[in-house]
Amino acid sequence: MTRDVGARIRALREARGLSLSALAAEAGIGKGSLSELETGRRNPTLDTLYAVAGPLGVPLASLLDDHDGAVIGDEGVVATRVRVVREPERTTEVYLLRFAPGAARTSPAHVAGVEEQLIVLSGAGVVAYDDQEVAVGPGDHVRFAADRPHAYRAAADTALEAVNVIVTPA
């Protein structure tokens, strides 16, 4: 998986005419880290993949293993790809997110027009976007523009499990 993800990143970067330095700077990661990702010598983290996907102008699914059930996780957050639907006007990605108690994930802005929805299955936490924090629990649904930085955080004493739907326009 690591080598395949790196190859996808490199191919997308080169197709866009971006140098390694330029993509690393736009993504806010080190040039050496990006080089190691592209060559498969470094395991990608969810945060790093989101950071790279934005400047490349692609949904996260374009970087991951291209099959339902693909899993990526780091620092108390695990995302499992449930489904990706590619249509001419948009790509819709569905993930099952699992956060350990107190775990958080901050996402940089996605490309213009991206929208996210979070449906909480169990646990409690907070969704932060547009300078607001929304407390969430089982059954809650939050919808927001994700072309700005946003974050998810599980409550300190309980795990959070949710469905995350990301819609990226073509």
Structural class: alpha+beta
Task: Please name the CATH topology of the largest domain.
Answer: Jelly Rolls
What is the CATH C-level name of the largest domain? Mainly Beta
**What's the architecture of the largest domain, going by CATH?**
Sandwich
- Contiguous helical run count: 4
Roughly how many Å is the radius of gyration?
A: 16 Å
CATH superfamily of the largest domain: Jelly Rolls
How many beta-strand segments? Answer: 10
Termini separation comes to 26 Å
- What profile does the largest beta sheet have? 6 strands, antiparallel
Mean pLDDT: 91
Report strand order across the widest sheet. 1-2-3-10-5-8
**β-strand amount:** 35-45%
Q: H/E order of the elements? A: HHHHEEEEEEEEEE
Report helical residue fraction.
Answer: 10-25%
The outline comes out as globular
Number of domains: 2
Low-pLDDT ranges: none
The oligomeric state is single chain
Written overview of the protein:
The protein has helices spanning 2-15, 20-27, 31-38, 46-56; strands at residues 71-74, 77-87, 90-99, 104-107, 115-122, 125-129, 132-136, 141-145, 150-154, 160-169. It contains 4 helices and 10 strands, in the order ααααββββββββββ. The protein has 2 domains: 2-59, 434 Repressor (Amino-terminal Domain); 71-169, Jelly Rolls (Sandwich). Strands 1-2-3-10-5-8 form a 6-stranded antiparallel sheet, with no helix packed on it. Strands 4-9-6-7 form a 4-stranded antiparallel sheet. The mean pLDDT is 91. 24% of the residues lie in helices and 39% in strands. The relative contact order is 0.16. It is of the alpha+beta class and 170 residues long. The radius of gyration is 16 Å and the shape is globular. The longest helix has 14 residues, at 2-15. This is Helix-turn-helix domain-containing protein. InterPro entries: Cro/C1-type_HTH, Cupin_2, Lambda_DNA-bd_dom_sf, RmlC-like_jellyroll, RmlC_Cupin_sf, TransReg_Diox_bact_type. It comes from Nocardioides ginsengisoli.
